[in-house]
Structures are given as C-alpha cells and as structure tokens.
C-alpha cells in the first residue's frame, strides 16, 4: 500500500541538544504504527514536526503528499491529534468541545451534528454530552479527545502516549475503540508509547527510537527475531542497551494545581 | 466569520459559567467605590471638587474593564498550560482569526463587567447626568476593553507560565490604573506625574467614559477618541504579531 507519511533525514535541535537526529521512516495508509521509546527519546518532538507545531532544522516530511512547512493548512486538514497532555476546554461541555472543533475545521452543520452523535456514541459519552468536561475522569477525557480528533474525517490520527496515566481497564477500552475506528474508517493511526506490551499488541509495525535516533523498524515479530529474544522487552534492551524509564508528574499537572489555588 | 463567532462564544460561555470569577472581580471595584468614595468624599467636597462618587465611579468602571480585559488576554497562558491552545494551533485556521475572536470575546466580557460596575455604582449613589450619551460611554468602554485585551494577549504571548502574572499586576495594571486620572483630577498635578498620566492610554479611556457619563471631560471627546484608537491599533498589531509567533 502507498505511504501516507514519509519522513527523510529529519533533524531538530534545541539549544545545541539534538532531540531528533537524522530520522527516516514511512507509514503506510491504513496501518497502525507505533513509535516506541523512553521519555525524552524524541517521540513528541517528531509528532510536533509532523503536525506543523514545530519546524524541523533539516530533513523532509510528506504527509499525504503535502509538506507541513510549506502548506501547513493543507496538512492540518489531513490529521487529527490526541496530545500527551489534555487539550480540552474544561469549562465547556463534551458536546461544546466537539462542536467547537467541528466549526474551526469547517465541517458543515448537518454532517457535524451526525458525526458528533456517531462518535460520542462510539466512545460511550453520548449520555454525558451535556456535562462539563471538568467533571470527567481521565479516561473519559481521553475518549472525548479521541472522538474529537476524528470529527473532521482525518486520514491520519496521531496519538501521543494515548494511555499514559490510565488504568489497564481503561487502556484496553480505549484501544478497542481505536482499533474499531481504524477498521471501520480505514484511518491510519500513528501513536507513541513507552509501554512495550501496548506496542506489541496493537501496532502493525513498530519503530524503536532512543536518543533521537531510530534504532530499528519492523513488526513485533521481526524485532524479536532480529534480536533473538522472545519478548519485546528483551528485544528493546537488546536494541538500546537499557530499560525503559518511567515518568514523573508533568508541568501541566502542576499548573493545574496552581490554577485551582489561584481561582479560589 | 463562523470561526470568529465560535471563539467569541467560547470566551463568553467561560465567563458566564464562572460565577465565582464574576463575583470575585466585582469585589475590588465595590471596595474601591466604598473606601475611596466615602473615605475621600468629604475632603474632595471641601476642596471644592464636588461629589466625589460622581467623579470616581467612571474611573472605577474603567478599572474593572482593564482588569477583566487584561485577564481575558492573559487567559492564553491558561490555554497554553492546559493544552487548549494546541487544539487551536493545529487547526487549519489563521492565527489572525484566533486573535480577532479572542480579542472580541475578551472585550465583550470586559464591557459586561463594566456595565455591572456601572449598575453597582448607581446603588452607591452615582447618577449619570446625561442619559443620551450612554451609547458614547459604551463606545469608550468598548475601545478601552479591546485595547487592554490586546495588551493582555501581547504579554501572555511572551510568558511561558503564570509566574509572571503578579509582576504584570504590579508593574503594568496597577500603575496604568492609578496614574490614569481614574481616582484623582488631572488639574494641577506636579509636572512629572502629569507627563506620566498623559502617556497612560487609560487616561483617555477614563476621560471619555467620565465625559459621557457626567458631562465633564479634560481633553474633549475628539482627542480622547483619536488617542485611544491610535493606541488600540498599535497594540492590536503588536498583540497579533506576538501571538503569531507562539510556538508550543
């Protein structure tokens, strides 16, 4: 099948630190592609460049035939994204968040209404549509973001650590929704994760990334075969020479706390 | 057009829903009205300035407008911290539209707040002397609100988080308010203070609102309008430029 994302020799530096170092890969139309690596490996930076939020220092990106640097608006229409940190408006209801998204993406009224209903039903939030998002649990928010990311019929769905901080049950739940949408609508899914078993279970193909470089690409089976290991965890250690690290609370979480203090 | 409308509507919904913010932001103007109005009232009267509440209320209305407008602009920092800004920035819409929608939304909220304070000050004894020029007062309120939302946006575009917020309150909002002629007449000021007040854009907003409500202006409506509009255009341009440069 044809490549929907193709990346060649992509590099991005921040004050001398190379976050993404000469990275090349491609994603086929309709596949579920995982970026597997520890925190700080360059996963989010790569996603930001693919989604027009950051400009690369060098290298070339093609997203569905368009260059994110030269024609950002064309590229912006082709994808939906669920960020690592929440990007909903807490003070609006679930429905209002969806409606806002539909309008700024120019989805016509009739289609928008139908699509919002369809998607909110898929992620099982239709009966909570009039509730303010701030009353939602982490899992519900993530589901709403996924539904929102799909509202404008994108060809590609980006998911940056979509299940970070969620319990295993919610995690499974979310993945079954994503897989269903991938099958039903033929959406290409590009996700980052540092959970091995998630990459192994969900992705058609995996790229292992560490210190800004892609170390290996292939199906979970191929990666295990290449490293002569019988699980992805060992394969990862074999490839990178280390274990995956875990994460502490992010800046956004701390700010959220501060806002609460500030408002009262 | 629809995009600008939905951005405007979002600001409005957020304002109407946060009752604690509305009540909280009315506290300060009420305190100023009561403490200054009734505290300095007798002295002001003795000095031949007339009824101080009449003089003060338009200044307090202007104060509530700039506080609310600045805060609306600065809300971009919230949006940045809580992620909603990313949702806006990856959308296939121009930054200019986002800026216009936000500014109109923020300004609308600030004008609503100003009207609330006007009503409250009438409870405290303030009486507009010429009802037919209320629309003119509204016009001045709107321009002032747009200008300070733009200033808030400009500042917020430069800040990464809320750490700088108190700095802005102390070094921008408070001086702009206190040195604007909102609480004292501009006549007979020491020349250093006089120069500062003349450079303060709020001075002209306060003068216009006061002129429209009680019929006494220091500079005249035409000069007030020209200065206010010039400031507003320049600040809108700066705000739009800085906003367009935001990277996540």
Give the overall average pLDDT of chain A. Answer: 86
Biggest β-sheet strands, sense, barrel of chain A? 6 strands, mixed
* Secondary structure category of chain B: mainly alpha
Mean pLDDT of chain B: 91
Give the amount of beta strand of chain B, in percent: under 5%
Task: Provide the number of structural domains of chain A.
Answer: 1
Name of the CATH homologous superfamily of chain A: P-loop containing nucleotide triphosphate hydrolases
Number of helices of chain A: 10
Radius of gyration of chain B: 18 Å
- Percentage of helical residues of chain A? 40-55%
Measured as a percent range, the helix fraction of chain B is over 70%
Shape of chain B: globular
Number of helices of chain B: 10
SSE order of chain A, one letter for each helix or strand? EEEHEHEHHHEHEHEEHHH
CATH topology-level name of chain A: Rossmann fold
The helix/strand class of chain A is: alpha/beta
Provide a brief overview of the structure.
The complex is a heterodimer of chains A (264) and B (248). Chain A is of the alpha/beta class and 264 residues long.
What does this structure look like?
The complex is a heterodimer of chains A (264) and B (248). Chain A is α/β, with parallel strands linked by helices and 264 residues long. Chain A has one domain (3-263): P-loop containing nucleotide triphosphate hydrolases (Rossmann fold, 3-Layer(aba) Sandwich), CATH 3.40.50.300. In chain A, 41% of the residues lie in helices and 23% in strands. In chain A, the strands form 2 sheets. In chain A, strands 5-6-7-3-8-9 form a 6-stranded mixed beta sheet, sandwiched between helices. In chain A, helix 3 (94-104) crosses helix 4, helix 3 (94-104) runs parallel beside helix 5 and helix 8 packs across helix 9 (232-240). Chain A is globular, with a radius of gyration of 18 Å. The N and C termini of chain A lie far apart (55 Å). Residues 246-250 of chain A have low confidence and may be disordered. Chain B has helices at 2-17, 19-46, 52-81, 84-89, 95-123, 134-158, 165-178, 191-199, 201-214, 221-244. Chain B is built from 10 helices and no strands. Helix content of chain B is 79%, strand content 0%. Chain B has one domain. The relative contact order of chain B is 0.15. At the A-B interface, helix 2, helix 3 and helix 10 of A face helix 1 and helix 4 of B.
């Amino acid at each position: 099948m044809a490549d929907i994302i193709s990346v060649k020799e992509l590099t991005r530096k921040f004050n001398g630190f190379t976050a993404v170092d000469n990275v090349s890969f491609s994603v086929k139309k309709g596949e579920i592609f995982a970026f597997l690596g520890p925190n700080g490996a360059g996963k989010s930076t790569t996603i930001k460049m693919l989604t027009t939020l950051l400009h690369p220092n060098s290298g070339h990106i093609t997203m569905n035939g368009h260059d994110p640097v030269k024609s950002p608006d064309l590229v912006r229409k082709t994808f939906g994204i669920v960020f690592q940190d929440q990007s909903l408006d807490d003070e609006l209801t679930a429905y209002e968040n969806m409606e806002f998204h539909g309008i700024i993406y120019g989805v016509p009224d009739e289609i928008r209404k139908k699509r919002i209903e369809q998607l909110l039903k898929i992620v099982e939030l239709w009966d909570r549509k009039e509730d303010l998002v701030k009353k939602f649990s982490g899992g519900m928010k993530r589901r709403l973001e996924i539904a929102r990311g799909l509202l404008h019929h994108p060809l590609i769905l980006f998911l940056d650590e979509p299940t970070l901080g969620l319990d295993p049950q919610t995690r499974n739940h979310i993945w079954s929704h994503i897989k269903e949408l991938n099958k039903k609508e033929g959406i290409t899914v590009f996700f980052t994760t540092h959970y091995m078993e998630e990459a192994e279970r969900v992705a058609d193909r995996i790229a292992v990334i560490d210190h800004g470089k892609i170390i290996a690409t292939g199906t979970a089976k191929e990666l295990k075969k290449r490293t002569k290991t019988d699980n992805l965890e060992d394969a990862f250690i074999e490839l990178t020479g280390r274990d995956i690290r875990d994460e502490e609370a992010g800046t956004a979480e701390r700010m959220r706390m501060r806002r609460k203090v500030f408002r009262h | 057009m629809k995009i600008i409308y939905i951005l405007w509507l979002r600001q409005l919904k957020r304002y109407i829903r946060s009752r604690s913010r509305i009540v909280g932001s009315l506290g300060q103007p009420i305190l100023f009205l009561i403490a200054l109005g009734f505290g300095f009232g007798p002295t002001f009267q003795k000095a031949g300035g007339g009824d101080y509440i009449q003089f003060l209320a338009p200044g307090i209305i202007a104060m509530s407008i700039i506080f609310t407008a600045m805060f609306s602009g600065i809300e971009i920092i919230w949006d940045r911290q809580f992620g909603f800004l990313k949702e806006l920035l990856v959308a296939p819409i121009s930054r200019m539209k986002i800026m216009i929608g936000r500014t109109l939304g923020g300004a609308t909220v600030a004008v609503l707040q100003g009207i609330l304070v006007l009503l409250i000050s009438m409870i405290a004894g303030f009486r507009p002397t010429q009802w037919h020029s209320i629309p003119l007062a509204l016009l001045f309120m709107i321009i002032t609100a747009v200008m300070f939302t733009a200033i808030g946006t400009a500042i917020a575009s430069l800040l990464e988080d809320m750490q700088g917020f108190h700095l802005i309150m102390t070094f921008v909002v408070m001086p702009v308010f206190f040195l604007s002629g909102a609480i004292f007449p501009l006549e007979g000021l020491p020349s250093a203070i006089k120069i500062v007040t003349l450079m303060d854009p709020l001075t002209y907003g306060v003068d216009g609102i006061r002129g429209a409500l009680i019929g006494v202006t220091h500079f005249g409506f035409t000069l007030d309008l020209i200065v206010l509009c010039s400031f507003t255009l320049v600040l809108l341009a700066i705000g739009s430029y800085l906003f367009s440069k935001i990277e996540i």
